[in-house]
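Fold it.
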Amino acid sequence: MLVLVPTGEMMALEHIRNFSIIAHIDHGKSTLADRILELTGAISDREKKDQLLDNMELERERGITIKASAVTLNYTHDQKTYMLNLIDTPGHVDFHYEVSRALAACEGALLVVDATQGVEAQTVANSHLAIENDVELIGVINKIDLPAAQADAASEEIEHAIGLRPSECFKISAKTGIGVSELLEAIVMLLPPPKDKSGDKSAALIFDSHCDDYRGVICYVRVFSGSLKLRHKIRFMGTEKTYLITELGKFTPAMTAVDELGCGEVGYIIANIKDIADVTIGDTITDFNDPADTPLAGYKKPMQMVFSDFYPGNNTDYPRLRGAFEKLAPNDASFSFSAHNSPALGFGFRCGFLGLLHMEIIQERLEREYDIDVVQTAPTVSYEVMTKDGKVKKIDSPSDLPDITKIEELREPYVRLEIITGSDSIGNIMKLAEGRRCKLIKTEYISQTRVMLEYKAPLAEIVYDFYDVLKGMSRGYATMDYEFMGFEKSDLVKMDVLVNKIVVDALSIIVHRSTAAVRGRKLISKLRKSIPRHQFEIPLQAAIGGKIIARETIKAYRKDVTSKLYGGDITRKMKVLKKQKEGKKRMKNIGSVQIPQEAFMSILDTGD
């Protein structure tokens, strides 16, 4: 029996369940969220649509969740009404940070595994994240309606890789609704309610926020102790700023105003906050007149792993690009940008991302939502440099490297890389990993046909095309996930690219000395194909310090100036050709080389 209760009514703590859905990408999180919304009566038949909690057009188009979203549902079981606060999370490795924030606001989680694919790398990573946050897990084996489903094999893999017994796993089909009602009962029976701290001083955790053009900043909060009331004065413990609550509410899934958010509840706060910079994700909100003694444990700041420079394109100017970034950044805590000037490309921005998909999403949002055209340099990872005077500095771009004479050592980021693959493709994958300077830590069979490989890997070698090559080698079956470990000393060098004898800083890369010569030759060869021919000859060179390690030449367009000469002395022809050569030489000195976007991106392709 399903009964809706007024959302403003306070509910006993033992009847509240805060949970999220975590899984590998494309294992059915958003579809399961849709079924739960339907079964609890939160949406009518008229409002039904796929991926209901995915609000961005990009999320619907790509079929992935990018931003975590929250919804409050009312569910009646054994004549008791329960409040279910569901937080839907992304599954891609780039949005790991969004998952960690959602889990900090929950007591329980549904770990969804595709019955046709079994446990994947991101499944393992998300389960570790849940265990670190003391979150109770319920195993869910989805897509049991498919002909290729192997639910029993998937439950064995869950037991082996994560430690959940097969008896603790629920077999469902989120698409058809099979088993979802039983899963809802399990949520209220097996997941713990919030701890009773209703008598303590008010403390609420901000786990997300977004900016509304008309209402200001909307903060998504989970109340851990006390309560928050309408028209009460509050204080942000991190920024020390004070505000008056003008609206409190819950997502049902539409924004529904309430007078009070009690202990253990999830909702939103609007308090006339104009600037998103005033709100820090992970900050604690408390009552101004009776503040909490200590703030709640927040989050580690997201660490950008990939950096790229964005410059205004053909139909865009610098102020427009800055304006678009200023609107995008508030709703994405893991994206950063700062002004940057390049001698080759002019004024632009250095941007930090969690990974390549994150970068792609930002670029696509710029084009779609703001109609902005950008020229983008090839992504690089961040490095650490220790100078001779003992100072350690973080470097996000090769152009920021100090003079070679001042460098004591260069350090590159290393990650713990987990690959799950079929046993038939182990040999090829190990060969690929070895070629990318990865060191094998352990090999573990999670079933008779599937194996988990754990590597210590340099991030620079795996962040670009490694995943695509891995998928190709394993016929699409292998999955990977990585976690940052730290910076370690490495034999790195800066490789400059000279176009027409001028260093183009945006094409410079930091490479390992052992692969520098090979990378240099491949890079120059690809640039020769990417840069169009001009009226003059263009030399392309790769150099380390003052030493040229590779060279190619883009031939000039040549007009046949001797076509009008009929026979006669050869010196006539030679004189005309010499005159043409001098003209080309002059043009080369004053002419500028047009470098297209493909040239900047070509330095990514390692040619494997």
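Residues 1-8, 51-67, 587-591 have pLDDT under 50 and may be disordered.
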